[in-house]
Amino acid sequence: MFTRDKWEEIIESLSANWVRTILTALGVVWGIFILVILLAAGTGLENGIKKGFGGLATNTMFMWAQNTSKPYKGMPKGRFYNFKIEDVAALKTEIEGLKYVSPRNQLGGFGGNNNVVRGLKTGAFNVYGDYPEIIRQQPMDITSGRFLNYNDIDQKRKVAVIGQTVKTTLFDKDEKALGDYIKINGVNFQVIGTFAKKGNGGQNAEEAQKEIYVPFSAFSQAFNRANNVDWMVITADNKNSITDLKTQVFDIIKQRHTIDPSDDRAVGNFDLYKEFKKIQGLFLALNIIAFGVGILVLLSGVIGISNIMLIVVKERTKEIGIRRALGATPWTIRSQILLESVFLTIISGMVGIVFATGVLMLANFMLDNMASADIMFANPTVNIGVIAIALLILVVSGILAGLIPAQNAIKVKPVDALRTE
To answer: Is residue 258 within 8 Å of 72, Cβ to Cβ?
Structure first.
């Protein structure tokens, strides 16, 4: 079937009027180019939004205590309560599917006063009392030293891991932070590590470095928090979603703190997974739209090829008649027309893919060289699976484009074709 003579005939037929062929091919080139660019743009936007999460474990919920909104068992409405460290153990024990339950305490925050001192230098920073798991829920790069571990928790070590901005504020450029001491609300803590991380949740990169992490146990002891917990970061495992498990979490908290089971305002929460799923749904819709628009544009190019092939068949009526008179079968004629159509469609599509790849390479080069890290657009790419689908679409489109002209070609009777001028 794929003989040299056949391919030479295909090339000769398509190059007989090369201006017409190129203009026809541009429709398919443009269609596949639009399809790839739209899908890549959707990927770039998705990557940018995910980058904005700063590496957060997305299957996560943030939970804090609020005033009760209903009286219950003699307890008044409007009562405030605190989470306790014992609540953490209860959640881990009673609920299957939770991967991490991290209690957190905090000093500082928005509008906070200078709470950290080193020598004559001071700064206002967020100070967190944490467990080691928090680094898996809110990832950061340890640039020197180490992060907190369970020996620090068990021994209530007064140690601290500080952000890069904290280091540059409290230490001179040539000073080493590791092993030195900073004073947090009048209590000395030894620096054991430094970190860098991206901003998330609307926080920019610089603000993300203005943080200090100390062991939860040392924080509670140093700042008289007893067994109270300000808030929790709770992450589900890969087999479960935190959205499905959070009702169980609330029920246990309400039971342990004598809260009306129907009081939905007593436990504040932010379901990151739920919000992330909404964003994923948006990107799925964008990809469907991109496919739809791209295929429609591609379809217009395919229709152009079909029309041109009809003209080609009309121009070659006498040739087809001679071939039929010499014994060519209908399948031979049909396959020739279909091959020409598929060949033109695939070549046009490959040119469109190459052109789109060049544009994406240029876009990635420009994005990599941009100084701003807050651009919500990153690494616009299309995976090999999408390219394979595009090629399949091209093959099917080529067959469809040549099907009607091929059927018209085999309907021509040899005698009538030979009479055609």
So the answer is: yes
Beta strands in 17-151 (DSSP E): 60-65, 83-84, 98-107, 116-118, 121-123, 126-130, 141-145
CA atoms within 13 A of residue 11's CA, in its CB half-sphere: 6
Q: Taking the domains of the chain in order of start, what are their residue ranges?
A: 4-54+277-419, 67-97+238-265, 101-236
Integer Cα distance of 130 and 357 in angstroms: 46
Instruction: Determine the pLDDT at residue 300.
Output: 76
Six-digit token pair at 360? Answer: 């994406």
Tokens matching residue 84: 């306790």
Secondary structure (3-state) at 255: helix
Give the distance from CA 231 to its chain's centroid: 28
pLDDT attached to residue 395: 76
Q: Enumerate residues 6+ apart whose C-beta is below 8 A from 165.
A: 206, 209, 210
Q: In this structure, are residues 194 and 145 in contact, taking their beta carbons and an 8 Å threshold?
A: yes
In this prediction, residue 2 has a pLDDT band, given cuts at 50, 70 and 90, of: low
pLDDT of residue 66 exceeding 90, the answer is yes
Distances (CA, A) of 147 to 141, 182, 350: 10, 16, 50
Residue 46 has pLDDT above 80, yes or no: no
pLDDT digits (tens, 9 = 90+) for 170-181: 999 888 999 999
Where helices occur in 175-316 by DSSP H, the ranges are 205-208, 216-222, 242-256, 272-315
Its pTM stands at: 0.70
Residue 379 corresponds to which amino acid? N
pLDDT of residue 281: 82
Angle at the Cα of 250 (from 245 to 251), degrees rounded to 5? 100
| Tokens found for residue 272 | 């990151």
- In 3-state terms the chain splits into helix, strand, coil percentages (rounded to 5) of 55, 15, 30
Instruction: Tell me which residue of 71, 317, 374, 128 sits closest to 137, measured CA to CA.
Output: 128
Q: Is 372 a residue whose pLDDT tops 70?
A: no
Q: What is the pLDDT of residue 9?
A: 62
